[in-house]
């Protein structure tokens, strides 16, 4: 990646802090089937890395796991601490995790691996995990096999998460082979929540005021002009999961 492109990506990554409340209200959580697959039976301690406002963190904590969350943005950590007060939230990044060597059984990275330096982050994950530990990556992606969602995608455009080639994710050494799992699910929504979700995208946050308004007005128009949706509707997602294990 060229220096200018990396600088733009860094700006987008930092932009979430300005929209932490919208992110918390509007972004989806993660389906139980995906969490079942990511977290091995018998795991006790989990690091949720790049935890944001705790969308995955709270589901992990609800399973009785010992969870610590690491998140670089102060605004996101503040919202996380409010949403999941029982979980310790630490400042840190995937490239510099503030935990001891061999201290957790599982690391989860939800909707965030595309923001990191994968080589450095993989090495740090291997350091923090116990032998035999699991690194799990997860992304929600809108299901554009559905006609109106594909139309929505044309209006919104694609950000970093939507444009990565999820079918080709490989975690790499020192981890073993990367396994994958995909599950489909739906989330109840209305037009206001959908617009707010669009507003929490990094490329919308960092857009000009005019471009931002064009996108958000277009999102609302897609919903309101579709005679099949009504005031409330189910938003379809495909959730992509990847995991790899350290050697014993």
Structural description of this entry:
- There is one protein chain.
- 36% of the residues are buried.
- Helix content is 39%, strand content 24%.
- The protein is built from 11 helices and 7 strands.
- It is globular and about 55 Å long.
- Helix 2 (20-26) crosses helix 9 (191-199) and helix 9 packs antiparallel against helix 11 (209-224).
- The chain has a single domain (3-146, 159-188, 236-245), classed as 3-Layer(aba) Sandwich (Rossmann fold), CATH 3.40.50.
- Mean pLDDT is 88; it is low at 1-18.
- It has 248 residues and is an alpha/beta fold.
- The chain has a 7-stranded mixed β-sheet with strand order 3-2-1-4-5-7-6.
SSE diagram, text form:
Blueprint: H1 3-15, H2 20-26, H3 32-38, E1 45-49, H4 57-62, E2 66-70, H5 74-83, E3 88-90, E4 104-110, H6 118-128, E5 129-142, H7 147-156, H8 160-163, E6 179-190, H9 191-199, H10 202-205, H11 209-224, E7 232-245
Parallel strand pairs: 1-2, 1-4, 2-3, 4-5
Antiparallel strand pairs: 5-7, 6-7
Helix pairs in contact: 2-9, 7-11, 9-11
């Amino acid at each position: 990646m060229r220096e200018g492109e990396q600088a733009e990506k860094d700006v987008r990554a930092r932009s979430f802090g300005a929209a932490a409340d919208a992110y918390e209200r509007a972004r989806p959580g993660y389906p139980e089937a995906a969490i079942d697959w990511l977290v091995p039976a018998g795991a006790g301690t989990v690091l949720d890395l790049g935890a944001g406002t705790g969308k995955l963190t709270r589901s992990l904590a609800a399973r009785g796991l010992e969870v610590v969350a690491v998140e670089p943005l102060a605004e996101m950590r503040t919202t996380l601490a409010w949403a999941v007060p029982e979980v310790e939230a630490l400042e840190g990044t995937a490239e510099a995790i503030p935990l001891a060597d061999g201290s957790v059984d599982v690391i989860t990275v939800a909707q965030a691996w595309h923001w990191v330096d994968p080589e450095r982050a993989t090495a740090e994950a291997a350091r923090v995990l116990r032998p035999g530990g699991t690194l799990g990556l997860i992304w929600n992606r809108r299901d554009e096999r559905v006609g109106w969602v594909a139309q929505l995608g044309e209006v919104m455009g694609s950000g970093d998460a939507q444009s990565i080639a999820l079918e080709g994710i490989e975690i790499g050494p020192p981890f073993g082979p990367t396994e994958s799992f995909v599950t489909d699910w739906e989330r109840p929504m209305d037009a206001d929540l959908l617009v707010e979700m669009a507003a929490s995208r990094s490329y919308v946050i960092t857009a000009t005021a005019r471009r931002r308004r064009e996108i958000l007005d277009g999102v609302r128009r897609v919903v309101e002009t579709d005679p099949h949706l009504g005031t409330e509707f189910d938003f379809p997602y495909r959730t992509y999961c990847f995991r790899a294990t350290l050697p014993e």
